[in-house]
Write a structure and sequence with these properties.
The protein has one domain (8-197). The protein is built from six helices and no strands. It has helices spanning 8-35, 38-65, 75-108, 115-134, 138-158, 164-197.
């Protein structure tokens, strides 16, 4: 039996998530490459840049095709989509506030070495509520991965076991890897969604 096309709002949500993951992957890869030695920075940018283009192209393709997906068929579907949208916005809004506040405090207290690990930790933490909102197990794994690397980097920094550039590289690469995996996961959903339109 052929799968039914997903609701239009779901297709647009996945497309938006893919574009976000593509952008965030480039940002984190850029942070890492700026601290990496020249011979290593180019392969990192090429690898993550290729993944970002792949995910970003898939997201744009799904967004352009989203008008072909069916609108919601019931009031319950519309209400659920509204609840998810509000929760999604609240999570991202809280994440942005925490990053802004933490960055300000770290800069004001001259603890710049902890800036990237702290931002990485906040990004990792935001995946936990996302898992509950979207009922996805992958978010728990990505959250635990990023948070573990960020916290480990903070501990090692405080003990003088690693330098600031090393901490930035490790956390940035770990986070770029997480956003890439998330993007590829959604790329799979995108491909299924596009195939459902032709059946």
């Amino acid at each position: 039996m052929s799968p039914k096309p997903m609701p239009r709002i779901a297709a647009r949500s996945i497309a938006g998530g893919m574009l976000l993951m593509a952008g965030f992957t480039l940002i984190w890869a850029g942070i890492a490459s700026s601290a990496l030695p020249s011979p290593l920075s180019i392969p990192a940018i090429v690898a993550f840049g290729t993944l970002s283009l792949l995910v970003g192209f898939g997201g744009a393709q799904l967004l352009l095709a989203s008008g072909k997906f069916p609108a919601h068929s019931s009031q319950a579907d519309r209400a659920q989509s509204k609840r998810i949208g509000i929760a999604y916005g609240a999570i991202f809004g809280t994440e942005a506030l925490l990053i802004g506040g933490a960055s300000g405090i770290i800069t004001a207290t001259h603890h710049d070495a902890y800036l990237i690990p702290t931002i990485g930790l906040i990004v990792g933490l935001h995946f936990y509520p996302m898992a509950k909102v979207f009922h996805r197990t992958i978010d728990y794994y990505l959250a635990t991965w990023v948070c573990s690397v960020a916290l480990s980097s903070m501990i090692m920094l405080s003990q003088g076991k690693i330098t600031t550039p090393t901490a930035s590289i490790v956390v940035s690469l770990a986070t770029a890897t997480a956003t890439s995996i998330y993007g590829l996961y959604m790329l799979r959903l995108e491909q299924r969604a596009i195939r459902s339109l032709t059946r």
